[in-house]
Amino acid sequence: MPNSSEIRALLFDVFGTVVDWRSGVARDAGQFLSRHAVPIDAFEFADAWRRQYAPAMEEIRSGRRQFVRLDVLHRENLVKVMTDYGVDVRSISTEELDELNHAWHRLDPWPDSVEGLLRLKRRFMIAPLSNGNIRLMMDMAKRAALPWDAILGAEVVRAYKPSPQVYVDTVEILGLKPAEVCMVAAHNGDLAAARQCGLKTAFVVRPVEHGPGQRSDLHAEQTWDFVAADMNDLATKLGCPT
Amino acid sequence: MPNSSEIRALLFDVFGTVVDWRSGVARDAGQFLSRHAVPIDAFEFADAWRRQYAPAMEEIRSGRRQFVRLDVLHRENLVKVMTDYGVDVRSISTEELDELNHAWHRLDPWPDSVEGLLRLKRRFMIAPLSNGNIRLMMDMAKRAALPWDAILGAEVVRAYKPSPQVYVDTVEILGLKPAEVCMVAAHNGDLAAARQCGLKTAFVVRPVEHGPGQRSDLHAEQTWDFVAADMNDLATKLGCPT
To answer: Which PANTHER family does its entry note (chains A, B) (predicted)?
Structure first.
C-alpha cells in the first residue's frame, strides 16, 4: 500500500460508491408503480432506468449532443423506460414525473459512508466527482448529511466521466498536481480513467450495488493504490483516526 | 418586509459580506512586509491590493480577456502593487509570493457569520456566489467552518459579477425560478445586478469592511427585500429559529 502523505484531495464517485441508488430508486418507483397499478417489479424498473444512463451520456461524450445535466438525461430516460414497459406517459402529470425523476436526489448512503467521509474530511479535501449535477448532489448531501467540502463533477466541467477532461479539469480547479488527488470509486472503469490522467486511485468494493446477483466490479481489476472494504476502512488505510 | 416562504436558496457574496478580507489580508501582508523590512502599512497594502480587483475583473467582463480564476488575478495584482510600492519582486521567491497570495484563502468570518449560516442552512440551500474561485472558497470554508451546501460562483459559470450571466446561470444550475433565490450581500451594486435578473435581495450592512473610515455601502440604496444588521439578524428575519 503506497504512502498517502502526498494526497491532498479525495474525489468520490457517488452513485454506487457513496449511496445505494438501486434501493433508493426502487423505493420511490415502487410507490409510483403501485399508485398506477403497473405490474412491474420496482427493482427491475430501477435497473432498466439505470441501463439508459451510459448510452444517454455517450451521446454527449461522443460530441453528438451538447452537454445537458444529468437531471435532463434521467427525465428523458424515465419516459423511454415507461414507454418500453407500455405505460402511457401522457396520462401522468409532468409534476408526478418530475417528482419521480427526483428519486435520484433522495438516495440513502451506504451505512459506512457518512462516518467514513467525516473521518476523511478532517485530513483531506473531499468532494464528489460524479456525473450527477450540482443540484442533485446538493439535495442528496443535505438529506443524507454527506459532509462535502465542495460539489465538483460533470456539471462544473461540462463533460461526463470517463472523459479525461473531467479528471484533468477538476484537478486544475483544485490547483493541485494529479498525483495529489485520489479518485475513490466502486467501479474499475472510473479508476482506470482517473489513473490515465495521473490521479491516485482507491477502490471501495460495493458487492450489492446491482443487487444480490452482481457480477461486475466485485474485485480490483488493477493494482489500485488503495483497496478498501468500505469508507471506514478507506479512512483507516489513509491514516485517518476514528 | 416581504414573505420569505417562496425562497429556496440563498446565495452569498463572500468578501466583505461573510468574511473580513481587509483584516485577514493585512495580517498576512504585515508579516511579509516586516520580514522584508518594507515600510508600508499593512492595511494600506491590503487596500491597494484590493483596488486592483475590479479593474482586473473588468478585463474579463468586457471580453478583452478570457476567463481566468481569481487566484490568477490576485497573483498578478500582487506583483503590480509591490512594484508600485518599489519592492523588487524578483528578489522574492515564487513560493513566498504564492503563500502571500493565499492570504485570500485564510480570511476570518465576521463574528456572526458561522452561527447565522448554520441557522439559515436548516431552512435554505446556502452557497457562496463569490468572484472567488472554487479552491479559494473551499480552503476558506474548511478553515473557518463555513457550512456551505455547495460552492457556486464565478468559476462555475466562468464569468464575474456583476455580469448578469453569473446570476442567471447560477439560478439555472439550482433548477429554481429567480424569485426562489435570494442574493445576500453587503454591496448595493451586487444586489442591484441580482435584482435585475429577478432574484430576491438581502442587504447585510458591514460598516467596517473598508476600515473605520468607510463611506460606501453604509445603508440600503434601494428597497431591498430584506435588510439585516448581521447574518444572525438575517436568519431571524427569514424566520429561522435560533
So the answer is: HALOACID DEHALOGENASE, TYPE II (AFU_ORTHOLOGUE AFUA_2G07750)-RELATED, HYDROLASE, HALOACID DELAHOGENASE-RELATED
pLDDT tens-place string over residues A97-115: 999 999 999 999 999 999 9
* Model confidence pLDDT, tens digit, residues B161-186: 999 999 999 999 999 999 999 999 99
Give me the amino acid identity at A3.
N
B35 contacts: CB under 8 Å, gap ≥ 6:
none
Which of A118, A138, A177, A180 should we substitute to test contact with B (largest number of B Cβ atoms within 10 Å)? A138
Closest partner residue to A150 (CB to CB) among B71, B138, B175 is B138
Q: Do A202 and A225 meet the contact criterion of CB atoms below 8 Å apart?
A: yes
Domain boundary assignment for chain A: 9-20+107-237, 21-105
Binary contact (A134, B142; C-beta < 8 A): no
Is B145 part of the contact surface with chain A (CB cutoff 8 Å)?
no
Contact A133 B174 (CB under 8 A): no
**How big is chain B, counted in residues?**
242
Determine the average pLDDT of the residues in A47-52.
97
Q: Which CATH superfamily is domain A21-105 in?
A: Putative phosphatase; domain 2 (1.10.150.240)
- Inter-chain CB proximity A150 and B133 less than 8 Å: no
